[in-house]
Amino acid sequence: METARSLLITGGAGFIGSHVVRHFVRRYPHYSILNLDKLTYAGNLANLEDVAGAPNYSFVRGDICDLELLRRLFQERRIDGVIHLAAESHVDRSIRDPFVFARTNVLGTLSLLQAAREAWAGAEEGKRFHHVSTDEVFGALHPGEAPFCESTPYAPHSPYSASKASSDHFVRAYRDTYGLPVVLTNCSNNYGPYQFPEKLIPLCILNICREQPLPIYGRGENIRDWLHVEDHAQAIDDIFHRAPDGEVYVIGGLNEWRNIDVVRLLVRLVDEELGRAPGSSERLITYVSDRAGHDLRYAIDAAKLRRDLGWKPRYSFEAGLRDTVRWYLAHPEWVEQITSGAYARYYESMYGPAAAAANK
Ligand code: NAD
Ligand code: TYD
After folding, report:
1. How far is the CA of 100 from the centre of ligand 1 (A)?
2. Is residue 200 within 6 Å of ligand 2 at its C-beta?
3. CA distances from 267 to 133, 212, 334 (A)
4. d(CA 190, CA 135)
């Protein structure tokens, strides 16, 4: 059994964070796990109902930009490990409001690094700061180009990816300047239960159910490399526990799909689950204006992670998507809760009042 640890997980009420919290709470009962989350529109404690009462879990509502709060938590809880997921995460929102992305993703990460540096100064041995980042920092690939790997140069395009790239650079700077014991991971697109329905996959699942338009940006030919969120959580576990200090890993499923093909697969799966005639929801596919600066293709070569730590994804895409579809169909109350209020107003501002009303 590993030594007991006092872990701070940030953004644990969000999509990936809730899976990471659940994974660590269940797998490491001798750890003390503190979830720090601001509960923005994307954070939802209902994502963690099944572990909220666990004796090794606690929650603090707070902002990662609040350095005084961070200092207090590091001291009071004797934090010796950080898994940092709190972020603004949606590209379309970053195009509309880049400042909140700079605040949380850059200044929030910097505050967390500073709090860890101060708390661990002179006692770095056995400590670990795991920064969870995205493959979007590498920019876009052309078809046929080799997938991203750990040595790919940074070339972010969106305000979201620029803010994440900046946070990655601060992580490296704290490693190189102050000797902070960090690991850094850049993962491809995740899917699975509890994903907020502004992202392509849950948005389309819910819209197929409600017979609402499936908005495809541009020609639907942009490519993403999809990974099940539980495979990401396992990779974080492997890297957090076993990677050498200072290492960087890219994480992905070697699972590239054009958006239009993902949506067609979702149409087939949801129609099957609902007993509709095969493909009857294809008529909902609606081409809309392209996203500004839309990256053409992301793809990851996770050979280093496979080679060093033996990680590989467990989910095939179709099986993982089918489970995800079934999860959304089985949790209408979660969907109702999350799509009311602030999200309904955002959806209306994107697609108009009629679409928003139909989306309720
Ligand atoms: P999410 O938007 O679902 O959740 C983000 C969480 O962070 C929410 O619970 C929110 O309340 C919290 N948060 C936001 N601002 C905060 C602040 N100032 N202080 C404290 N908490 C705050 O995001 P996600 O999709 O789960 O992504 C989690 C992390 O993984 C992010 O860092 C993201 O960049 C990274 N990532 C995501 C993907 C993906 O496909 N979703 C892929 C690779 C990496
Ligand atoms: P998204 O889930 O927002 O993730 P990211 O932008 O981080 O990759 O989008 C995935 C892909 O789907 C991306 O190429 C944009 C596209 N997309 C649509 O075509 N329509 C939509 O309504 C959304 C939300 C995304």
Report:
1. 13
2. yes
3. 30, 12, 21
4. 11
**In angstroms, what is the span from residue 83 Cα to ligand 1's centroid?**
12
Over 60: is that where the pLDDT of 360 sits? Answer: no
In angstroms, rounded to a whole number, what is the distance separating the alpha carbons of residues 55 and 265?
Answer: 41
Q: What is the pLDDT of residue 3?
A: 78
Give the closest residue (by CA) to ligand 2 atom 14: 222
pLDDT grade for 62, boundaries at 50, 70 and 90: very high
pLDDT band at residue 302 using 50, 70 and 90 as cut-offs = very high
Q: Any catalytic annotation for residue 92?
A: no
With a 6 A CB cut-off, is 259 part of the ligand 2 pocket? yes
Tokens of 207: 């819209």
Let me know the angle formed at the C-alpha of 64 by 60 and 67, rounded to the nearest 5 degrees: 100
Dihedral of the alpha carbons of 40, 46, 47, 52, in degrees to the nearest 10: 110
Residues with CB under 6 A from ligand 1: 10-11, 13-17, 37-40, 42-43, 63-65, 85-89, 104, 108, 132, 134, 164, 187, 189-190, 196
> Which token pair is 328?
């959304």
